[in-house]
Amino acid sequence: MTRVALPVPAVGAPVQDEERCCVAPGGVPLTEAEAVGLSAKFKALADPKRLTILSIVAASGAGETCVCDIQEPLDLSQPTVSHHLKILVDAGLLAREKRGVWAYYSLVPGALEALAATLVRPGAPA
What we know:
The chain is 43% helix and 11% strand. By secondary structure, it is of the alpha+beta class. It is elongated and about 80 Å long. The termini are far apart.
């Protein structure tokens, strides 16, 4: 039986593609800042009440919803609803416009689509 010596790259030597043990990722990885921003958005969406708020605002035929119309379906106190709305606004998912004593909320154009796009692999079926 004859033994064949396999080449071993020197420490610190660049690894050739044919020597890799796994396939290199095809896309560009997130930067630290992008990961932090996405994390805040996904954390905002991780609460069932906030998802309900987004669905209420998205379902509005007028494109915006008064805070007074959000509180009742959630059966939450006004301060709790305001807390959830602030998190969604801070995450860049909702926009807030104050008119008199009422605040109106609308989806930030393209925010949900951009967030969804981060979950799709290039070339994968949608």
